[in-house]
Design brief:
With 324 residues, this protein is α+β, with helices and mostly antiparallel strands. The protein folds into two domains: 2-198, 3-Layer(aba) Sandwich (Rossmann fold), CATH 3.40.50; 207-323, Rossmann fold (3-Layer(aba) Sandwich), CATH 3.40.50. Helix content is 25%, strand content 26%. It contains nine helices and 16 strands. The protein has helices at 13-21, 48-55, 69-77, 94-97, 120-126, 162-185, 207-210, 218-227, 308-313, and strands at 2-7, 25-30, 35-37, 43-45, 60-61, 82-86, 104-108, 131-138, 148-155, 234-239, 257-268, 277-280, 284-287, 292-300, 306-307, 322-323. The strands form three sheets. The chain has a seven-stranded mixed β-sheet. Strands 10, 11, 12, 13, 14, 15 and 16 form a seven-stranded antiparallel β-sheet that branches. The chain has a two-stranded antiparallel sheet with strand order 3-4. Strand 12 and strand 13 (284-287) form a beta hairpin. The longest helix is centred in the middle third of the chain and has 24 residues, at 162-185. The relative contact order is 0.10.
Length: 324
């Protein structure tokens, strides 16, 4: 089976590697252009999928937009039997969806129609779901709305982070993809239309999504911190006040405050004004709307991620301090 693979981030790499490992004829990999990084923006960094493809001598196509006529014509000459899309990052137009003989199939990390959209892994944790999974669907013109070809469920561990869940679902998605394409080759699949009335959504994460709201219950605050670990990181603002600037040397300060990202959170017993630091003697406990949150790691603005204990030893914050 001739395959053209569309994907960009690390999440897509296991699916590409699974196809190659099972002997599928991957004619080309389509990924987003290299992105400039660094202060001067002079160094271009290749997407993880490109790195994996180059290592396997697979041709790589990086159109600025997948609607470019030259790109579509090039893809047509490859005569793919199926297109595989895993977190590519662009919406594909009907002409492209119809180009492969078996259409385009997508690996989506949720049990569709739940959590359609850009960030289903993080929103599964943010919403406190007990179960998620992966779906292989045949793509149509809508947002993750095509008929379902295969699904694998997965129960969410109580203290899993977004990064850990994403890594696990990426491996599950690769397994489900290989199973689906094997059945597709045998014409042994019966696509099942989604129940659109049951659809929920997982919109793109924003800076506002990542802000910690201490007035919320401790379990919800802890979920926010875990869901956004390691990226983009849930953030809060430590109110430093006058006379405390020396405790935050080297960090970015704004009007007597400093931005801090928190990681490794779990709800614990405790009470106080929301955002108040209850304990800072080796353990960092912060009051929430109900209960408290224990934090294992922090990242003050402009500094590397570090253990809360090390930060506290460096006088990062003391009991009675306040996050907002």
């Amino acid at each position: 089976m001739r395959v053209v693979f569309f994907g960009t981030p690390e999440f897509a790499v296991p699916s590409l590697e699974a196809l190659l490992g099972e002997g599928f004829d991957v004619r080309a990999v389509v990924t987003q252009p290299d992105k400039p990084q660094g202060r001067s923006r002079s160094q271009a960094v290749a997407p993880p999928v490109k790195v994996a493809a180059v290592a396997e001598d697979i041709p790589v196509l990086q159109p600025a937009r997948p609607t470019d006529r030259a790109f579509v014509d090039r893809l047509r000459t490859l005569a793919p039997d199926v297109g595989v899309v895993v977190a590519y990052g662009h919406i594909l137009k009907p002409e492209l969806l119809a180009l492969p003989r078996h259409g385009m199939v997508n690996v989506h990390p949720s049990l569709l129609p739940e959590l359609r959209g850009a960030a289903p892994v993080e929103w599964a944790i943010l919403n406190g779901l007990e179960k998620t999974g992966v779906t292989i669907m045949r793509m149509d013109e809508g947002l993750d709305s095509g008929p379902i070809l295969h699904q694998l469920p997965h129960y969410i561990e109580p203290e899993v982070t977004g990064g850990e869940l994403s890594e696990h679902l990426a491996e599950m998605g690769a397994q489900a993809l290989v199973e689906t394409l094997a059945l597709l080759e045998q014409d042994a699949l019966k696509p099942v239309p989604q129940d659109h009335a049951r659809a929920t959504y997982a919109p793109k994460l924003t800076r506002d999504t990542a802000r910690i709201r201490w007035s919320e219950p401790a379990d919800k605050v802890a979920r926010t911190i875990r869901a956004l670990d390691p990226k983009p990181g849930a953030w809060t603002v430590l109110e430093t006040g006058k006379g405390k600037r020396e405790t935050l040397k080297g960090s970015r300060r704004v009007a007597g405050s400093v931005e801090v990202k928190l990681f490794g959170a779990k709800p614990v017993e405790g009470a106080g004004t929301p955002g108040e630091v209850l304990t800072a003697d080796g353990r960092l406990l912060i009051a929430a709307g109900s209960g408290a949150v224990e934090v294992e790691e922090v990242q003050p603005a402009g500094k590397p991620r570090m253990s809360a204990a090390n930060w506290l030893r460096g006088r990062g914050v003391a009991a009675g301090g306040r996050f907002a």
